[in-house]
Design goal:
The protein is built from one helix and six strands. With 88 residues, it is of the alpha+beta class.
């Protein structure tokens, strides 16, 4: 059996991880590049083109952090280079 302090600490760490993941899950950003190509996967087929200053919801990033999965206001989802987005 764990001491209550250890159990409380584990609970707090789990909650912090959950809030961090939720905050990172959908972040509103603007497109800073003049244009960007929306793809079906990182380095995949082109499915659309976006123009500045389009507002996007960033859902997640690729493992190497170079690509961002975004959703437009119209509901189109796809990947674009993360460098195309304005910094927070």
């Amino acid at each position: 059996m764990r001491p209550p302090a250890v159990t409380t600490l584990l609970l707090v760490l789990a909650l912090c991880a959950t809030f961090t993941a939720a905050a990172e899950a959908a972040t509103a950003r603007s497109l800073c590049a003049r244009t960007a190509v929306l793809r079906d996967s990182p380095e995949g087929f082109v499915i659309g083109r976006l123009y500045r200053p389009q507002r996007l919801q960033v859902q997640r990033r690729s493992a190497n952090r170079r690509w961002a999965l975004v959703v437009t206001r119209a509901g189109a989802a796809g990947w674009l280079p993360a460098r195309s987005l304005c910094r927070a």
